[in-house]
Structures are given as C-alpha cells and as structure tokens.
Design a protein that fits this description.
Shape: elongated
Radius of gyration: 20 Å
Number of domains: 1
Largest sheet: none
Length: 170
C-alpha cells in the first residue's frame, strides 16, 4: 500500500491525474472485495448454524449468538459509507447464498451430530430451499431496521426456528 501511496502522490505532483485516478479506482475495488469477502464469511457462518438448527431440530445459546452476530455483522458491512446504499441489494443474495451454502455444508458436517455425517450425506438431509429462505428472511431484516431495532427483531425471529420456542422458554 505504501508504494501505491507514493505512486499516487507522484502522479498528482506530475499532473498525471488519469494515473492517480487509476490507483484510486484500484483501492476502491480492493476495499469492496475485502468487504464482500467478510460478508461471505458471516453468511457461511449464518448458514452453518441454520443447517445445524434444521438437522438437529433445536436451538442452543451458542447457535443463537452466532446467528445474531452474523446478521448484525452482515448489516454493518453491507451498508456503504454513505449510509444510503448497499454492496449487496436486498434482491441480490441468491448467488451469494448458493456459494455460501456449499461451503456451509462442509463446515456444518464437522459439527452436526458431532460430525457423524459426510458433506454429501448432510447435503441430502438438509432442505436447502428452507435454509436459504430463512437466511434471506433474516438478511432482509437488515434493510428495514436500525442496528438497535434489528437486535430486538432477531430475538423474536428465534422463536420461528426449529426448537426456538423451547429455547426461548428456558
């Protein structure tokens, strides 16, 4: 990064504004890619816990914390600095969910029922459409609520998950 900063400064001093803008464009692209990678990692984490929830038909405190934290982190990362637009729009999650689901199956296979299922076995057990729809429902909340409001809404959403009502009563 420091060499790019030196190049940027030199380009400006020498009046090579097209070169300076090219450097800035590259930084913007790299920044966006880093943000999208972070969103993807939280999306995978969310799906892992939704898969475990579906297969085991229960909700644990640990899973609830991970689901809640993933949604809050996705909200924070997805909102651009201008606070009015998003990196991923509400209707653009299908491709990201498809890729993240594949990774989540592998990760979840280590955790579901203490890792007794191979990824292919787990994939056959999971209702992918239901998991992805639940994830989309939770993610869509990030567009409609402030961070503070989202925390309360997520807590209410836990009751809709398998085992969520029982978990809430404890």
């Amino acid at each position: 990064m420091s060499q790019e900063l030196i190049d940027l400064k030199q380009s400006i001093i020498e009046g090579r504004y097209d070169d300076a803008l090219a450097i800035i464009d590259e930084w913007e692209w790299m920044s966006k890619e880093q943000i999208l990678q972070k969103i993807e990692s939280f999306l995978v984490r969310l799906l892992v816990h939704l898969i475990k929830n579906q297969v085991e038909q229960r909700l644990t405190n640990s899973w609830a914390v991970s689901i809640r934290d993933s949604i809050l982190k996705i909200q924070r990362l997805n909102l651009k600095a201008n606070k009015t637009s998003y990196y991923i729009k509400v209707n653009e999650w299908d491709g990201d969910l498809e890729n993240a689901f594949k990774d989540a199956i592998f990760e979840a296979s280590v955790e579901v029922q203490q890792g007794i299922y191979k990824p292919n076995q787990l994939r056959q057990m999971v209702d992918k459409v239901e998991v992805n729809n639940t994830a989309k429902r939770l993610i869509s909340l990030t567009y409609n609520y402030s961070t503070e409001g989202l925390r309360d809404v997520i807590d209410d959403e836990f009751c809709k998950l398998p085992g969520g009502e029982e978990w809430n009563r404890k």
